[in-house]
Specification:
Layout lengths: L5 H7 L18 H4 E7 L3 E3 L5 H14 L2 E5 L5 H15 L3 H5 L12 E3 L14 E8 L16 H26 L6 H6 L5 E9 L11 E4 L5 E6 L5 E5 L2 E5 L6 E5 L1 H6 L9 E3 L7 E9 L5 E2 L17 E2 H9 L5
Parallel strand pairs: 1-10, 2-3
Antiparallel strand pairs: 3-11, 4-5, 5-6, 6-13, 7-12, 8-11, 8-13, 9-10, 9-12, 14-15
Helix pairs in contact: 3-6, 4-6
Length: 335
């Protein structure tokens, strides 16, 4: 069964042709109506190389608590490593359609991995204006190279180089966030699954859309992960909810965008907050992003950290296996 991809629809959509109604959002969600225009949300920007480590730690803790989102600069991932990651991802999406379909997510697969379009059941039956490629980039024992593009030929090498640097960023974030909760620096990462945590890369490809005010790339959601570390391209599109309103998040060149996800909110017993966000699309330009979701292994149980729970602070969340949490979330079943 051939699946219609958004990239194909976009290439057929001309100014005078209405886009399929399945993409058109109700007015309560249309970005043209619901975005606060003329204001860029200046989420905290944290200089990772600041020699004052106490300041960096405080900033990470406060941003995780008050925003659920921040951007880090001077993060020690070389600029050329990031630009190569972007370049090979873009090359993959510019391949002929039949070449991309070789990596399509198998029908009926329980895993997210593979090339695809529809990710989750939307309550109102609408679709996002986006195609994607998912594959695990760490740990080696969880990688399935069947979903790593062979073309461009440097794809694997570039991704392996990126994850090498990325893991150092993840370590520093977990240490800072652990201390911010009053734990020892190693305790948060240990409880989260240590070096076995899954690093799941997703490449989002949002083609130009003739009516960007009516559609969303990805609808409002929080991420399921502990953390999401995202590299965007320069086309504006990320929005966050603040005080019940939607704002564009200011694009900062060479920054990594960090989202707190559901599992971190649960593990911290609500001290750190998962960020509610969505993406918009552009009329003329393709937007792309490269989030890496730092997640537990499927069988790993996640609940509030035992040291954060006592008589005065009862657990606010259930403890459950990550695969059960993910199943409920993707199928819109209450947790």
């Amino acid at each position: 069964m051939e699946v219609l991809r958004v990239q194909t629809i976009a290439s057929q959509s001309k100014e005078d042709v209405a886009i399929p109604s399945i993409f058109v959002r109700p007015e309560t969600e249309q970005p043209g109506i619901t975005t606060v225009h003329g204001v860029k949300l200046e989420v905290p920007i944290i200089d990772f190389s600041n020699p004052d480590e106490g300041k960096v730690l405080r900033e990470i803790m406060e941003a995780s608590r008050d925003w659920g989102m921040f951007q880090i600069v001077n993060h020690e991932i070389p600029r050329d490593v990031i630009s190569k990651l972007q370049s090979v991802g873009k090359e993959f999406f510019e391949l002929p359609q039949e070449e991309k379909e070789v990596y399509a997510k198998p029908v009926g697969s329980d895993s997210l991995e593979g090339y695809g379009t529809k990710l989750q059941k939307e309550v109102n039956g609408k679709k996002g204006w986006v195609d994607h490629l998912f594959h695990i980039i760490w740990p080696p024992s969880s990688i399935n190279y069947r979903f790593w593009p062979k073309n461009p030929p440097s794809y694997r090498e570039v991704n392996e180089e990126y994850v090498k640097y990325l893991r150092a960023v993840v370590d520093k974030l977990f240490k800072s966030m652990s201390i911010g909760l009053g734990l020892e620096e190693h305790e948060l990462k240990e409880a989260a699954g240590g070096d076995d945590m899954i690093h799941l890369l997703k490449i989002n490809y949002y083609p130009p859309c003739p009516c960007p005010d009516l559609v969303l790339g990805v609808p409002p959601h929080t991420d399921m992960s502990y953390l999401t570390i995202l590299v965007p391209n320069e086309v504006q599109g990320l929005q966050a909810s603040r005080d019940g309103h939607w704002y564009d998040v200011k694009y900062v060149p060479n920054a990594l965008v960090i989202h707190i996800g559901d599992q971190m909110e649960i593990l911290s017993n609500g001290k750190y907050k998962a960020v509610f966000h969505r993406t918009t699309v552009n009329k003329e330009e393709t937007r792309m992003s490269w989030p890496v979701f730092i997640e537990p292994q499927a069988e790993h149980e996640v609940g509030p950290h035992p040291k954060l729970v006592n008589q005065d602070n009862p657990p606010k969340y259930k403890t459950k296996k990550y695969k059960d949490y993910a199943y409920c979330k993707l199928n819109k079943i209450p947790q």
